[in-house]
Amino acid sequence: MTLIHVKTLARAVAYPLLALVLGLAIGFRAYPEIVGHKVWLISWAYQSIFHPPEYNPEAVTWIARQRLLSWYGELAKFRIIRMREWGEEARDFFIEYEENGVTVQRIKRVWVRWKIWTQNNGEDIIYQGQPAADDSLVVTVEDVK
């Protein structure tokens, strides 16, 4: 390869890179709030695509249990009879508590939103499978045992 070809190749690579860097510098100087927002969005998308969180069923169960206790924990004679998984993001708790002197047994579904936006595919389909009056499903003692 002759010297002229090396210079031509260097110009073909160096000048466009120089123009790109100069354009980015001017763009950042003129619109820093737009560029800053885009950098945050791109880094967020990169993290969610290439380093997604892993499913940890124990952590999801613990978070769901704490949320349930924050809702019902102060009721008289509250106790959790049984728990079952409902997919990766929800737990069904069979609970019992006393309300106005009457012992009430219910199934309470607790959602834990741990998935990121790129992993929540078909969220509407999941909600269609959920019963409409999930909070008022009363079970008998025989069903729980």
Features:
145 residues, alpha+beta, Nuclear Transport Factor 2, Chain: A, 5 helices, 3 strands, 21% strand
Which helices and strands occur, and which strands form pairs?
Layout: H1 3-30, H2 32-50, H3 57-72, E1 76-86, E2 90-99, E3 102-111, H4 123-128, H5 141-144
Antiparallel strand pairs: 1-2, 2-3
Major sheet summary line: 3 strands, antiparallel
Q: What is the rounded distance between the termini?
A: 84 Å
- Tell me, what is the CATH class of the largest domain? Alpha Beta
Element order: H for helix, E for strand: HHHEEEHH
Beta-strand residue percentage: 15-25%
By DSSP (H or I, 4+ residues per run), the number of helices equals 5
Query: How many domains comprise the coordinates?
Result: 2
Describe the structure.
This protein is an alpha+beta fold and about 140 residues long. It folds into 2 domains: about 5-50; about 55-145, Nuclear Transport Factor 2, Chain: A, CATH 3.10.450. Helix content is about 50%, strand content about 20%. It has helices spanning about 5-30, 30-50, 55-70, 125-130, 140-145, and strands at about 75-85, 90-100, 100-110. A hairpin with a 2-residue loop joins strand 2 (about 90-100) and strand 3 (about 100-110). Helix 1 (about 5-30) crosses helix 2 (about 30-50). It starts with a helix and ends with a helix.
